[in-house]
């Protein structure tokens, strides 16, 4: 009564739709892989500039974000807040932008301007920051305002340098 025509996707219309979706998914996959490779290359350059030992750390998907947060004085285990439904992604975005801001400060760049640039054009920001001649100097930046509260970074990863003011119990 409601369905006057039955389609089992054996028609040319169904095949054309399937072919279009398959090509579209393949193109999206190629762009995702290219974005991952480009971001890993430039993140490894940023990690080298920051004194992180071994470039492979930039190629491991979750671990590279944890190292990035650590370089930005955010406890790297807060990465996992992104798995909380709905609010987790927003909270992680805020933490990521805070880490980006702190990294810009440590590079001696215009922190607010570069952070806004990085928020809207993250991959291009990563390329610019990685190839920039600025030296990574964590000692030139005062401790973050969250140094004595819940966001405090007191995690130690082997091969990742101490950020200058975070005391560790060795």
TrEMBL record:
UniProt name for this protein: Signal peptidase I
Pfam families registered for this protein in UniProt: DUF5684 (PF18936)
Keyword Transmembrane set for record: yes
Domain of life: Bacteria
Alphabetized UniProt keyword annotations: Membrane, Transmembrane, Transmembrane helix
Bilayer-crossing regions: 15-47, 77-99, 111-131
